[in-house]
Design a protein that fits this description.
Number of helices of chain A: 6
Shape of chain A: globular
Strand order of the largest sheet of chain B: 7-6-1-10-13-15-14
Number of helices of chain B: 7
Number of strands of chain A: 14
Oligomer: heterodimer
Strand content of chain A: 25-35%
Order of helices and strands of chain A: EEEEEHHHEEEEEEEEHHHE
Radius of gyration of chain B: 17 Å
CATH architecture of chain A: 4-Layer Sandwich
CATH topology of chain B: Rossmann fold
Shape of chain B: globular
Largest interface: A-B, 39 and 36 residues
Structural class of chain B: alpha/beta
Strand content of chain B: 25-35%
Number of strands of chain B: 15
Number of domains of chain B: 1
CATH superfamily of chain B: von Willebrand factor, type A domain
Strand order of the largest sheet of chain A: 1-4-5-7-8-12
Structural class of chain A: alpha+beta
CATH class of chain B: Alpha Beta
Distance between the termini of chain B: 25 Å
Amino acid sequence: MVLLWDLSGKCPEYLKGDSINTANGIKSLNYGIVARSGETVCQDAVCVNETAGKYAVADGVSTSFFPKIFAEKLVNEFCLDEADNDCLYDENTFQQWLARPQGEWYEEVSRITKDLPDSKWHITKSFLSGEPAGSTLVGLEMISSEKPSKYRGVIIGDSCFFHIRDGQIFRSYLVKDSEAFGNFTESFASYANIFDYNPSCFEDTVELGDILVLGTDKISEWIFKHSEALPGKWKRCLRWLRNFSQGKYDLENFVKNARNAVTDIELVNDDVGLIVMTF
Amino acid sequence: MSVGNYNKTVGSDNPSMFVILLDQSGSMVEDFAGSDKMTRAAQAVNRVIAELGRASLKESEHSPRCRIEVIGYGNESAESIVSGMITDVMAHPTELVSEEVVDSKGGLTEMKSGIWVKPKANGGTPMTYAYERAAEKVSAWIQDHPDCFPPVVINITDGEPNRPESAKAAANRLMELASSDGQVLLMNAHIQETPADSILVPVSLPESISPSAKFLFDISSEIPDNLLANAISSGLPAGKGSRAFLYRANAEALIKLINFGSSMGFKR
């Protein structure tokens, strides 16, 4: 399992995965996170467990309390070898699934906030007041025992899943177009039952040539904008996604260029978390 | 009508500005929400600052995501009470007060809170000066940050300005200021101890409404469509065309407006 956030205990500004031939019918796979320009910490988290066929991205809500830690706990939990994610797919039981990442978040934040000096009164106050972290999540599981390859996934908030087939967006969850993105999103909370949001589920099968994408909001908005633009721009976007999955492009440089509108649809400056796989 | 996209997100690379105008006129000594208006209003302002501080946390450090200006007006003048980037403001509260609170596990614990603004009430209601002072601050900010999320100005008052016509003209000049992302958003919260008659984020006002309510309605920004979700999630009954305006609001409604105002531009 590759935990992109778990290097030296801190998430560097940029991380990337390796392009490799992999299981579950996947021909190429790549992933990465890039911090918002001007910020030193990326609040997005990506986790890939190729052996188990589990992939997840999460976007910590930047105005919530220690969101990065919670985003990391969520993707980690989803991608664990032994994780039983079944209860996450049921609106009556998903809170059970959340209990462990919530508990781990609490333990870690407890350690950080213990015995802080008076100058950090606001941290102590937020912790004692029960301020939560929030995070979106998109999780995808390949079910390799079935042919053609089947997948199922779960999603909350404005991080997106794209299934691209025959050069078109065949399915997208939950967001359907670029207009739907705003500054407010549903999310999981780091304490039980304080947000009244339920995750949604999706499933389908993949065919040869399909592309699956898991992305946080701004890179997803950028993909939608290309699909809504002239066909030439969408083709360029598809070519970029394929090349990225094959490790031909560097995510960090691409994001920098796209933010500066070197590509002609500007990528809004924000953290980016992305997984792209081709079949 | 608020003109703009209101699409930018607040961040340390593109900080925005929040201005709070606090009525400190003599009538603020009147009863309100189990205390008096000046105390509750000061608490509300301290809450805005704390909210903006929380929204600017990056792990355990503050990130310079916004600038805060608090301008108090009363006794024929408008004076700066708090002025600085959130990093500096959070590092230097006027006072740290201790209180016992119920913690997240249900036990009693001592907690410290920062205080920046203290209750004060004296003289008339020179709202014109407050809007003019705000316009000076906002104009300078936009010049240095032309692409920021539009500055948000929250006015907390209990009454009529000394000179309504000049106050209206000053407010309109303030609302015409704009970054590349949109015009300044001016929110007005009129507080009064009569919650039964309160009007929250209205689209229009009844014919019979008082001139002072009409005045504040007219100088309150329309909530941009893409910020309606923020308003609703803050508990406000907002819909298309709603104005960022409360009339005869109780303490609960005031907090909702403050939560909404301090969420603007931040990704949530």
